[in-house]
Amino acid sequence: MTDLSVMPATIPLALYAHFPWCVSKCPYCDFNSHPLPDVLPEAAYLDALLHDLRHEVELAGGRRITSVFMGGGTPSLFSPASMARLLTEIDQLVGLEGNAEITMEANPGAIEHGDFAGYRAAGINRLSLGVQSFDNAQLKRLGRVHNATAAVDAFAEARRAGFDNINLDLMYALPEQSVAGALADLNAALALEPEHLSHYHLTMEAGTPFGKRPPAHLPDDEASWQMLEACQARLVEAGFERYEISAYARPGGRCAHNLNYWGYGDYLGIGAGAHGKVSLADGRLLRYAKHAKPARFQLAATPNALRGSSLVMSAEIDQANAAFEFMLNNLRLLNGFTIADFAARTGSDITQIQSALDQAVTKKLLVVEPEGVCRPTEMGILFLDDLQALFLP
Fold this sequence. Notes:
By secondary structure, this protein is an alpha/beta fold. The protein has helices at residues 42-60, 80-93, 116-122, 136-141, 148-160, 179-191, 209-212, 221-237, 256-262, 294-300, 319-330, 339-346, 354-362, 378-382, 384-389; strands at residues 13-19, 21-22, 34-35, 65-72, 96-106, 126-132, 166-172, 196-201, 241-244, 247-249, 266-270, 275-279, 285-290, 311-316, 337-338, 366-368, 373-376. It has two domains: 13-261, Aldolase class I (TIM Barrel, Alpha-Beta Barrel), CATH 3.20.20; 319-389, Arc Repressor Mutant, subunit A. It contains 15 helices and 17 strands. Strand 7, helix 6 and strand 8 form a beta-alpha-beta unit. The protein is globular. The model is unreliable at 1-7 (pLDDT under 50).
């Protein structure tokens, strides 16, 4: 690689750290997660994460980290002491911005998280709780190991620990669910007064148990649409703004890490199965991925390993695919993007996608405002797949 020490300073840099174990694997989940072994290899895995990070430092090119996201799996299976060590080394090796958003995913069950006060003291300032539902029957169908009471208790514990920025993950279109049931779940979440809600349609992902054998009595498309409309209206009433397809926030509560990802910013990826994307000083864009199996990743991420040993894939992104990836991500944002951002993040002139932009405007899926802002229309959000497909290279 050429001149990695000088990077486009205007492109923000985030960091994603993957923690691959869960108490049990949920039947709908297609993330890189693995059943918890008899003994969690906490120290060994943390060492591997830090060795992996040391091999990434050059890719940062002197930029400091604007956000950290600890995802999984279930990161909260790891102790606050491990998280403190990780964040300390990130700051020492790369540098954390003073106002960096630092998110950790956690599950509500008592056996699935450590002491929230300890995590807050370690430097984590945002929690994302995987609640999914407040209906115990639904939680059982989804294979969750917590119940509704545990979710409420975990949220209260997080507040007592000093967390003032909490996201709740919530699903709808669950088996046998009605509009009233979806609203009941949402109202239970709103009663806790979180800053952010991720509101997802349950999907049958290929390769998962649900994908191979979907549960009975799933709501049809019409019923699912009615749930979405009713829940969106309730969220607006409660003071939440929809700023991305599945993300809603109170004022000031938007997720900075995900905004960087959707905005086609750069991010380092460390850990088993983690992905990264960086802009190089010579204008090239690089995408890479780490070995997904924890044991294989740990074997590769050692002090004396050659740089790139933990990689399972590394490839440059050509201009056509960079333009498509930019649109694929940014069209999820209701506020859209600017033409200047497109040029800065892809290295391409807007003429690269002008024909597709014109088609999208003609089809009333996109508007281009005089200030150079391009944003999806309500129809564009409704038919997002069709809108994104116009930009395929």
